Structure formats: C-alpha cells, structure tokens
Amino acid sequence: MEELIAKRYVKALKDGVDLASIEAISDVFSALSDSFKDDKFIKIVTNPDVTIEDKSNILLEAVKPANSEKLNNFVKLLVENKRIEVIPAISVELKKDIANSTKTYEGTVFSDSELDSKVISDLSSGLSKKFDSTITLNFVKNDFNGIKVAVDGLGVEINFSKDRIDNQIIQHIIKAI
Fold it and tell me: Which helix (H) or strand (E) holds 31?
C-alpha cells in the first residue's frame, strides 16, 4: 500500500523538475529514510503527543540543506496528511524513477562459490548490451548452488542451477537408454 501512495507523491514531486533536481531531492530522501532506522526517531515522529508543528520542524530542519521551497512544502504536506511513515517508500520510488530515466541499474550476483571479478564484469557488460542500459553488478556469496543474477529495476532474474542441470543430464541419459 505504501508503494502506491509513494508513487503518487513521487509523481507530484517530480512534476516540472529537471533530473538534477530530482537526484538532489532523492539524496535528501535517502538521508531521511536512513533516519527511520533509528528507533528514537521513529518514536518521535509517530508519537501522537508530539504536535504536527514539532514533527514538521524536525523534518524541515533535516531537509534544510537542500534549500528548496518545493521540498519544504512537500515535507509540510506529508506531515499534514500524516504520511511521514511513507518517506522510506518515497526514497525507494525516487531511486527507481531516476534509474529508469537514466537507464542505470544495479543488480546482484548470488553464488555459493567465489566468482572472478572478470566474470562479474562480463555478466554486467552482456546484460548492459542486452537491455541497452548501464548495469552494475555486485557479488553476494550465499548458499545458492549455481549462479543467480537479479536486476530489480528491470525485473530480471537469471539463474543457472547446478542441481537443475544435473537433473536434466540424468533425464536425458535415462531417455537415451
């Protein structure tokens, strides 16, 4: 539900604003969303005993370095509509929107064995050519028996499972006999 609400706010926020301004606003919202990882901050902004003016002042002080009247009004609107908890979702949606606008995406490579940086680089360049975008891949070691590549912004997931390949070879041999 928050994602749908955040999309509407992002659409309103980026209306009539250039890409550089959206990137600056995204940086501000990233910093604000990091504040939501602090339990004390959450207790303050969700406390019904704290007035709307105090909540507004806290958030306006946080966005003050951006020096943007539009951003200040946007934060005031969020506070008035009691949508402060949507700020992390707005940050995520802003990043997705910027990625779609610039065709720059980040993905993750999962595997149970270490992969050479050249392999990851080759995967990245191959996917970049395939999707006509700039794709950066990061390696994460986990218990997946094979290689799995996920690029969330594009909705792409590719995997090569050793178990599945072994099963297919066995099935092929059984059919041949």
Answer: helix 19-35
The C-alpha atoms of residue 65 and residue 76 are separated, in whole angstroms, by 16
CA dihedral angle for residue 34, residue 35, residue 38, residue 43, rounded to 10 degrees: -140
d(CA 145, CA 167): 13
CB 139 within 8 A of CB 171: no
Residue 28 has pLDDT above 80, yes or no: yes
Instruction: Name the DSSP letter for residue 37.
Output: T
Confidence of residue 161 (pLDDT cuts 50, 70, 90): confident
How many Cβ atoms are within 10 Å of 29's Cβ, its own excluded? 27
Q: In which element (H, E) is residue 55 found? A: helix 52-63
Polymer length in residues for the chain: 177
- Rounded distance between C-alpha atoms, residue 16 and residue 12, angstroms: 9
Measured distance CA(109)–CA(132) in Å, rounded: 19
Half-sphere exposure of 22 (CA within 13 A, CB side): 23
As given in the structure block, the two tokens for residue 7 are 């999309």
